[in-house]
Amino acid sequence: MTRVTVIGGGFAGSEAAWAAANAGVPVRLYEMRPVRQTPVHQTPYLAEPVCSNSFKSNLLTTPAGLLKWEMRQFGSVVLACAEEVAVPAGEALAVDRHLFAQAVTKRLEAHPLIEIVREEVTDIPPDRPLIIATGPLTSDALAQAMSQLTGSQRLYFYDAVAPIVDALTLNMERPFVASRYGKGEAAYLNCPMTREEYDAFVDALLSAETIAPHDFEEPRYFEGCLPIEEIAARGRDALRFSRFKPVGLVDPRTGKRPYAVVQLRQENLQGTLYGLVGCQTRMKWGEQKRVFRLIPGLENAEFVRYGVMHRNTYIHSPSLLEPTLQLRSEPGILFAGQITGVEGYIESAMCGIVAGLNAARLIQGEEPIVLPTDTMMGALLDYISHYQGKDFQPMNANFGLLPEPEPPVRDRAARIAAKVERAQRSLTEFLDALHQ
Question: Same domain for 293 and 368?
Answer without folding.
Answer: no
